[in-house]
Amino acid sequence: ATIISDLYAAILGQQFVLFYQKQVDHLEQCIGVEVLLRWIHPEKGMVSPLQFIPLAEETGLIVPIGEWVLQEACATLAKWSLESEKQHLSIAVNISVVQFSKDNFVQSVFNALEISGANPQLLKLEITETLLANNIPDVKAKMKELQQHGVTFSIDDFGTGYSSLSYLKQLPINQLKIDQGFIRDIINSSNDKAIAQAVITLADSMELQVIAEGVETEAQRALLQSMGCNTYQGYLFGKPCRIEELHF
Ligand code: G
Ligand code: G
Ligand code: MN
Ligand code: NA
């Protein structure tokens, strides 16, 4: 079987699971999670999204897969809303450019919210600069419609794309996510540190939230905090894991 027919089988056979990774504040209190898709292949075991998302995008299969991720994430939000220690937690969902660009994307998000009863304010959509590089009017209209219902947006892998910064003031963006590529060597690389500082300062002056991803050491966290970044995600606080393994 080819990986394409395997992908079809995966959708039909419910071989996808969501992993969850914590996002924490400066007190290391969990404020939310990012959901990360995993494919449990019957023979190959766990397959990384890096290995199948490009193919899922080429074949269009990312659309039903992405809808499933949204529905699962919203179902989790609805479940957490009934638990006092979890009802404040947000869930961030990665959205593919291919998925976002579909005419019915906004409706598919509203459907997931309505079916589950999830609070839209706690749903954060992670989009990339690639999306913002083309067809700004369409992107803007969709983001505004979702924002009007409370959904928020985070720019994933910020600083790695090729888009113009002018979109930052045109679009309803709530958060910039500093790419882990700038965090990895932030202690020793003055260039990475300078870029991270620029993102933090930019976010600050535009009244956007900022989160650093790929934080693995306390030294990185402390440095980021001294630079004005107070929200973090990374192995230091927890690896992506199954929902049962999340401890708050
Ligand atoms: O967990 P990590 O290996 O877990 O993720 C690798 C890449 O796959 C990241 O760039 C991440 O944004 C992407 N990714 C993870 N889950 C999803 C998903 O549900 N949808 C999309 N489109 N991308 C995802
Ligand atoms: O592109 P995106 O930010 O959606 O994907 C996040 C990716 O980073 C996932 O593959 C996730 O498993 C991975 N990740 C999360 N925390 C860490 C970390 O602390 N270190 C490293 N190396 N990778 C991480
Ligand atoms: Mn992400
Ligand atoms: Na990222």
Automatic annotation (TrEMBL):
Top-rank taxon: Bacteria
Stretches assigned to coiled coil: none
Domain EAL stretches: 1-248
Descriptive protein name: EAL domain-containing protein
Boundaries of the shown chain within the full protein: 389 to 636 of 636
